[in-house]
Amino acid sequence: MYYRGAGAAVVVFDIVNRVSFDTMQKWVDELRINGPSDIILAICGNKCDLSSERTVDEDEARICAENVGGFYIETSARDSVNILELFERVGAKVPRMLDADESFSGLEEDNFHLVDLRSLEESERRLSCC
């Protein structure tokens, strides 16, 4: 992984695949050892549309995220559930991080701008994998 200058990381696992949760924890450990100490960390449990098949308890994932200084959110990439909210939560933390550390590498207010994704036309927001 490449960490230098990273302001945030979103680590995703599949809530219906326990092995992916265990692997996610290893990636978070790697990130905490080698990444910036002040990186914004989001733990994302994907496939919430399949919650009846879940093998990872939501409370367990939330506690895991809190224990590593991150936050937890469940999403469905298939159904576009909480995708916008995930990035809004990450984005909301960036200005606070800048206020706390003016010298944070790579993130200066002139280097980014916010886009309201809700204002995009529906056709612009729709993604297709095929």
Q: Care to describe what's here?
A:
The protein has about 130 residues and is an alpha/beta fold. It has one domain: 3-Layer(aba) Sandwich (Rossmann fold). It contains four helices and three strands; from the N terminus they run E-H-E-H-E-H-H. It has helices spanning about 20-35, 60-65, 85-100, 120-125, and strands spanning about 10-15, 40-45, 70-75. It has a three-stranded parallel sheet, with helices on both faces. Helix 1 links the parallel strand 1 and strand 2 (about 40-45). One of its GO terms (molecular function) is GTPase activity. Keywords: Nucleotide-binding.
Count the DSSP helices: 4
CATH architecture: 3-Layer(aba) Sandwich
Question: What is the string of helix and strand elements?
Answer: EHEHEHH
Strand line-up of the largest beta sheet: 1-2-3
Tell me, what is the CATH class?
Answer: Alpha Beta
Helix content: 25-40%
The count of β-strands is 3
Largest sheet: 3 strands, parallel
Q: How many domains is the backbone divided into?
A: 1
Residue ranges: pLDDT <50 for 5 or more in a row? none
- In whole angstroms, how far apart are the ends? 28 Å
CATH homologous group name: P-loop containing nucleotide triphosphate hydrolases
Beta-strand percentage range = 5-15%
What is the CATH topology classification name? Rossmann fold
Keywords: Nucleotide-binding
GO molecular function: GTP binding; GTPase activity
